[in-house]
Amino acid sequence: ESGIRGPSAVFGHEVSHAWTMNATGPASNMLREGWATFSEALVLRDEHGPDVEADFWNRLRNGYILGSEGRLSILGNPDNGGVHYSKGAWIFHMFDLMLGDSAFDRGMREYIEQQAEARPAGYAELIAAMSHAAGRDLTSFAMPWFSEKKIPDVRADVVGRRVVVSQVQDTPPFDLPLELALVTARGTTVRRSIHLRTRADT
After folding, report:
1. What distance in Å separates the CA atoms of residue 192 and residue 128, rounded to the nearest whole number?
2. 41 burial via Cβ count (<10 Å: 0-12, 13-18, 19+)
3. Is the pLDDT of residue 49 over 70?
4. Under a CB-based contact definition with an 8 Å cutoff, are residues 56 and 3 in contact?
5. CB–CB of 155/165 below 8 Å?
6. Computed over its alpha carbons, how large is the radius of gyration of the chain?
7. Whether the Cβ atoms of residue 202 and residue 162 lie closer than 8 Å to each other
8. Mean pLDDT computed over 117-124
9. To the nearest whole number, what is the mean pLDDT of the chain?
10. SS3 track for 72-120
11. What is the DSSP code (8-state) at residue 191?
């Protein structure tokens, strides 16, 4: 019932718990439930296509905005289920989008192996595994998503012949890789990859 009642893949969700059930530390609930919810999106995409998957992600986003935004952080509320399902799944989703499926899979396998060997497997170990797979340190990117109660509020303004991209949330700036698309007066679309690490960049 896509668009009417949020799509779900309960079996895929529950089976996925087997991979991260031994997560440790203050974000262990997010590492279990966020991963299982992310996996649920993959099952929906494979079984029902990208439109149903997009509907699923939209439902998670709306649930987060209405329930947790500005109120709860993952590290500040280690036992809270809501923010761990919604925001937690988005953290895995962002890692996948940034790294691509192949590197993301390597990072997840490295992280899961630590659990299989009964070693510490918390959020720091997840970030380290993803950093190893990416070939660069992702700590500054990842940590605000765990520690802050708000997500970035990004604005883009055209000022003369320049585009000024800024973060206006009342928290420290996030480390954000972004894709910017500007449609000119002639109808041409100009795309740029930018990396916003400060309050504003041009």
Report:
1. 28
2. buried
3. yes
4. no
5. yes
6. 18
7. yes
8. 94
9. 93
10. CCCCCCCCCHHHHHHHHHHHHHHHHHHHCHHHHHHHHHHHHHHHHCCCC
11. E
Assess contact for 79 and 29: CB atoms under 8 A: yes
Pairwise CA distance, residues 134 & 104, whole Å: 8
Give SS3 for 88.
helix
Instruction: Using the predicted structure, report yes or no on whether residue 3 has a pLDDT greater than 70.
Output: no
The CA distances from residue 76 to 13, 87, 122, 149, in Å, are 25, 13, 15, 8
| pLDDT tens readout for residues 61-100 | 999 999 999 999 999 987 777 899 999 999 999 999 999 9
Q: Residue 99's pLDDT is what? A: 96
Is residue 156 pLDDT above 70, yes or no? yes
Q: Which residues of 83-112 are buried (b: 16+ CB within 10 A; e: fewer)?
A: bbbbbbbbbbbbbbeebeeebbebbbebbb
CA distance 193 to 197: 13
61: its two tokens: 């986003």
Cα distance between residue 7 and residue 184, in whole Å: 37
